[in-house]
Amino acid sequence: MTFRLTCRCFLVLRQLLAFKLRLEEHQLSRLWTCQPPPGSFLQGETLTLNWKHPTINYTEKCASCAKLREDATNFDKECNCSISFYLPQKMEGNVYLYYKLYGFYQNLYRYILSRSNIQLLGTDVKDVRNCAPFKTSDKGLPIAPCGAIANSLFNDTFVLLYNPDSSTQIEVPMMRTATAWWTDKYVKFQNPTYQNLSHAFEGTAKPPNWPKPVYELDEEDPRNNGFINDDFIVWMRTAAFPTFKKLHRRLHRIDNFTEGLPAGSYSFIINYNFPVSRFQGQKALVLSTLTWSGGSSLFLGLAYLVTGAVTLLAFFSMMAVHLKLKERKTFFLQ
Ligand SMILES: *[C@@H]1O[C@H](CO)[C@@H](O)[C@H](O)[C@H]1NC(C)=O
Ligand SMILES: *[C@@H]1O[C@H](CO)[C@@H](O)[C@H](O)[C@H]1NC(C)=O
Ligand SMILES: *[C@@H]1O[C@H](CO)[C@@H](O)[C@H](O)[C@H]1NC(C)=O
Ligand SMILES: *[C@@H]1O[C@H](CO)[C@@H](O)[C@H](O)[C@H]1NC(C)=O
Ligand SMILES: *[C@@H]1O[C@H](CO)[C@@H](O)[C@H](O)[C@H]1NC(C)=O
């Protein structure tokens, strides 16, 4: 009961926050003024972006892929698309790549609850208690990781290419790790303690929407595989608003990119898997030198603190009421 009330509280707060964020996005979108230099070798399709947070909407640009994904029976057909853009100024320092979803309600009540925190702790990989409607596979095996959040894992993949001149293409090196919150990666998500991860998940099934099981999420890096895969953890931290961005990759500052991203021509090769047109959603990629906790974090932080305090207060008052009533009950019984 208290829990449910707290959830309600959160939902109301989230709505308020959403309003505030939308205002900020509106302000940001007015920064789009730069033009590509005349005679730039990439003409026509090239996008020119605001230099602070270049954002590339790719649902429309990849319309044929979006169309393909509308039909769920095409799930095994691959679809790539390429988007060229021009960065008018260099992005200095650390650069982060975010994906952004518009109109995806990761904050729905039933969706948020459809997960098993016990399972994700690695202590009991077969605990699927709260995971309806994704508890067990057709064959009756418990799903790992279970639940609607895990099953809907964002699965587009991206390659960023730098084109210093018309004949050269350099793949921009990106890092897959350290995108999740520290407490999530080292406290809330743990792999079962087994020598061999695939043995640890024996007797479980993969989520129905996943092409491969959880122990093959990153076979190259054991510290990024299974439940402690950063992409997975980032997705599992549900967003408060229907429009949200999530940290996906970090620029690996080596070779030509030690200073950051140089100005110039780039293209994204997008492996388009995640369907959004079914719910009139949109997808975008955002490059930024800020971590998400830059910018509007003060407001968000304060808001969370206040909710925390209010929740705690509610908890204690309800506890008091509960104890009072219990006392009276025992009194009557005597
Ligand atoms: C991207 O698409 C969303 C949703 O349609 C829209 O609100 C936003 O303004 C678009 N951004 C750009 C830069 O086109
Ligand atoms: C799509 O891109 C991926 C990764 O870059 C590549 O492995 C695959 O062959 C491409 N598929 C098509 C159909 O172009
Ligand atoms: C990607 O995710 C969608 C939605 O969860 C799913 O329908 C699709 O089968 C997945 N495709 C791949 C290649 O992972
Ligand atoms: C783990 O077990 C699987 C299946 O038994 C096997 O294919 C794989 O090679 C093993 N991996 C390691 C690192 O031992
Ligand atoms: C990028 O790095 C390669 C070697 O890694 C070098 O040959 C090339 O000149 C560099 N290009 C630019 C534009 O700095």
TrEMBL record:
Pfam families: CDC50. The chain crosses the membrane at residues 298-321. GO terms for biological process: phospholipid translocation. Residues 1-18 form the signal peptide. One of its GO terms (cellular component) is endoplasmic reticulum. It comes from the Eukaryota. Keywords: Glycoprotein, Membrane, Signal, Transmembrane, Transmembrane helix. It is found in: Membrane. Belongs to the CDC50/LEM3 family. This is Cell cycle control protein. The gene is LOC110152912.
